[in-house]
TrEMBL record:
It comes from Stakelama saccharophila. Signal peptide: none annotated. Keywords: 2Fe-2S, Iron, Iron-sulfur, Metal-binding, Oxidoreductase. Coiled coil: none annotated. InterPro entries: 2Fe-2S-bd, 2Fe-2S-bd_dom_sf, 2Fe-2S_ferredoxin-like_sf, 2Fe-2S_ferredoxin-type, 2Fe2S_fd_BS, Beta-grasp_dom_sf, Diverse_Oxidoreductases. PROSITE patterns: 2FE2S_FER_1 (PS00197), 2FE2S_FER_2 (PS51085). Residues 149-180 are annotated as: Disordered. It comes from the Bacteria. This is (2Fe-2S)-binding protein. Residues 1-76 form the 2Fe-2S ferredoxin-type domain.
Amino acid sequence: MTSFTVNNQPVHYELDPATPLLWALRDASNLTGTKYGCGTGDCGACTVDIDGEAVRACQVSIAAIEGTFVTTIEGLSRDRTHPVQQALIDANVPQCGFCISGIVMAASVLLRKNRDPSEQEIADALTNICRCGIYPRLATAIRQAAAIARGDETAPPPPRPGIDAAEAARKVPALTPPPR
């Protein structure tokens, strides 16, 4: 049995010790925010925080991380109030969203280590691939997240998830057919 901590909860996996962390998180723990992208560690969609390091979960076995602390996107901030999440949303960075959880995790590790990264340090730390081409807005958003984390800038209010109940219940006027 393999044991470590995921999102501050001790877990014990009765899986083959060679199982990639990605599949233990997604299939055994139902933490599907960690995405399967390439399976080779190149794209970064599966990036998680293991003991303060950004790690591609598809490339590490659960046996290799025995006794560690793993944080996934679900454990970073349930209400989207982490500075990286706020800044990415405020700057309209997410497009299709597939790569975003890996990018958020890599950026959160970067900002924990470096509270004022340069554009080159951001580029070096975030090697994640985004097919939507968010890179120009991404660097700006990471610098904004760093300012929020340092307290130099006020965070935008977190977005409301979903549609407002009153808006959903609003009665839409019936369309009348055009006169003949």
